[in-house]
Amino acid sequence: MDAVDALNEIAFWLERELAPTFKVQAFRRAAATIAPLDQEELGRRVADGRLKRTKGIGDRTFQVISQAVEGQVPEYLAALRERNAAPLDSGGTDLLAQLRGDLHSHTEWSDGTVPIEVMAAAAATLGREYQAITDHSPTLTVASGLSAERLADQLEAIAALPAVSRADGGTVTLLTGIEVDILEDGTLDQTPDLLGRLDVVVGSVHSKLRADSRTMTARMLGGVRDPHTNVLGHVTGRLVQGSRGTRPPSEFDADAVFAECASHQVALEINSRPERQDPPDDLIQRALDAECLFSIDTDAHAPGQLDFLSYGAARAAANGVPAERIITTWPLERLRGFLAKG
Q1: Is 315 in a helix, a strand, or coil?
Q2: CA nearest neighbour of 325 among 234, 256, 261
Q3: Considering the entire predicted model, what is its pTM?
Q4: pLDDT by residue (tens digit) across 174-197?
Q5: How distant is the alpha carbon of residue 114 from its chain centre?
Q6: C-beta of residue 159 within 8 angstroms of C-beta of residue 118
Q7: Helices assigned H by DSSP within 161-272
Q8: Which residues pair with 202 in a beta bridge?
Q9: Alpha helices in 230-331 (DSSP H)
Q10: pLDDT class for 161, splitting at 50, 70, 90?
Q11: Cα–Cα distance between 35 and 61 in angstroms, integer?
């Protein structure tokens, strides 16, 4: 098989398994190193030992490339395929099949790991009809949040990308967007002009998550009421597992916030990341009672994490969320109408 494809597929499966970033990047770096070489030149460099001495090629990646050049499916890739044959979660399979896209993902423009086009290719491989690119806003400097100038540059870059085809002959539509910080005063961390140019605005709180309930409620209500906000992201900010440790949910008046989401046409995100599982089940039930709409999103920071939709679908199904109330089950035309708020 093609060696570049083999290396990138290995990286995808490792990302899906939440492997350490350095391990994933070793395979993506090796793929980038050999990508300019044609098959004959690559074969010669494998045979005469030059490739093994090339910067960016380690023992494992050399083994994968060598086996691919010989026409084999590399052993390491075969083992990963077998290990990842089952869905990430056995629940919610009917709902998962109805999901058409994802409104929350990150690229190397902020704290993601790959270029936009690589995320788009992965979304197409997974059969997505649409994929939003929602990198961070400027206040989140730790995540290389996008200034107004960089966001404008990203919009031009997305517009210049060629269409990416799916296996069924369709194409994946890239939606422009941002995960914008809801600041302490309830305003959004980007210019209204730029927010108005985007397809999707995910509003999230990332700082001072232990503020008192009154303060946090006022902050979130401000973000929800902003006419640009389409989705309220990872609403409690909690962490339940993972390398960053655990973090309790923020305290806020959920009934007040969800009522405003329902009245301002803002979907509540069911964040599919396994370390977040946000919102908790009891808040999903309260959002259902408040007649909220939902958006099942991956919050992916790497291509393999786009498969996390399985986790979100399982949680939504377990909580009895009807597919019709999940905007990411909607066809693109209907979704665009919702995002434009009529």
Answers
A1: helix
A2: 261
A3: 0.95
A4: 999 999 999 999 999 999 999 999
A5: 12
A6: no
A7: 192-197, 213-225, 254-263
A8: 179, 231
A9: 254-263, 281-289, 309-318
A10: very high
A11: 13
- Residue 81: which region, alpha, beta or left (left: phi > 0; alpha: psi -120 to 50)? alpha
Greatest CA separation found in the chain? 68
- Residue-wise pLDDT for 287-332, tens only, equals 999 999 999 999 999 999 999 999 999 999 999 999 999 999 999 9
3-state secondary structure of 342: coil
What gap in Å lies between CA 116 and CA 94, rounded to an integer?
29
| Residue 324 Cα distances to 10, 90, 230, 278, angstroms | 35, 21, 17, 20
- Residue 49: count other Cβ atoms within 10 Å of its Cβ: 10
SS3 helix, strand, coil % of the chain, rounded to 5? Answer: 45, 15, 40
Can you list the alpha helix ranges (DSSP code H) found in 188-319? Answer: 192-197, 213-225, 254-263, 281-289, 309-318
Residue with tokens 């232990």: 210
Residue type for position 66: S
Tokens of 267: 């979907």
Cα–Cα distances in Å, from 80 out to 16, 32, 217, 220?
10, 21, 44, 42
Amino acid identity, position 266: V
Burial class of residue 97 (count of CB atoms within 10 Å of its CB; 0-12, 13-18, 19+): exposed
SS3 assignment, position 212: coil
DSSP string, 47-103: HHSTGGGSTT--HHHHHHHHHHHTTPPPHHHHHHHHHT-S-S-SS-HHHHHH--EES
Separation between Cα atoms, residue 282 and residue 87, nearest integer Å = 25
- In angstroms, what CA-CA distances link 168 with 57, 97, 303? 35, 15, 20
Rounded to whole angstroms, the Cα distance separating 266 from 227 reads 9
Query: CA–CA separation, 113 vs 115, rounded Å?
Result: 7
